[in-house]
Amino acid sequence: MGGAGYAGLIRDWRPVCVEAAATQSGIANARAWFEGRFAPFELHTGGAREALFTGYYEPEIAASRTRHGGYATPVYGLPRDLVTADLGLFRPDFSGIRIVGRVADGRLMPLPVRAQIDAEGLDDAPVLLYARDPVAVFFLHIQGSGRARFEDGTVLRLAYAGQNGHPYTPVGRVLIENGDIDRQHMSMQAIRAWLLAHPDRAQRMMESDQSYVFFRELPLGDPALGSPGSEGVALTPETSIAVDPAMHPLGVPMFLATEAPASDPALPPHAFARLCIAQDTGGAIKGGLRADIFWGYGTDAESIAGRMKSTGGIYVLLPKSLARRIPARLLDGS
Hints:
By secondary structure, this protein is of the alpha+beta class. It has ten helices and 16 strands.
């Protein structure tokens, strides 16, 4: 199944998956079904059991097919010469390590960083559309997917297609280190406000993150759902979570016990305790005790996701047949 190894093999999951798929009318009592077939394990790293939870959402950008007026920021599709190399295919001790680049003169070379792409563009990548707000495009990159609304009112999805292979650097961390925003008041909303209030420094600040995301167009489909995540299925608000694939296999059910902010910043946070599914990944989501909760689309989702940073517990649910023989050491460190 991948990850750190605690989830066993595909055959360990097949019986419960087949049973769930065969229930055409849906599982009448989902809680009883999971309790009867799965065993919960609290994830921990050594003695640490406190996980960190953040949130993400699906942003919307104003866009045009042509470059004109204020529509000047390109949104790129996947470069035609982009190559992904799985190093584990060459050496077992590199298992799980992937690098991204382009082939030039028979050598694998890195792709340009964000600053270089902003300055020079990308000759070998298609421009899907032009956006009106470069800050909105920057947050589209951070979230990994979103929606584009054209001048005639039509809307399409911009789903994640790939990334330039350079590490993700949180701009919020840079702003804190520079003394521009104090840690106590850091949020996505605070970052956006700072960028808009400092147009002379905004581009340089955004370019402190060398990572750059490429997209693909999809029909809007069900507007209540998000774009496909790393698992390849549409994300479900308040149920789909992003995890570190080096630690957790996609598709595994996890119970999260934490708290989440209210959509109204004036109201106190509330308990968030529910079963979620690991269906996505993210550049900032590293380690076993880490999860990013997908909140959906709209102003409420943006408000919650931008302010969410809480702690709590993660409990992975494993089929009982697997749980009876899984070594405890595999859950230690995952």
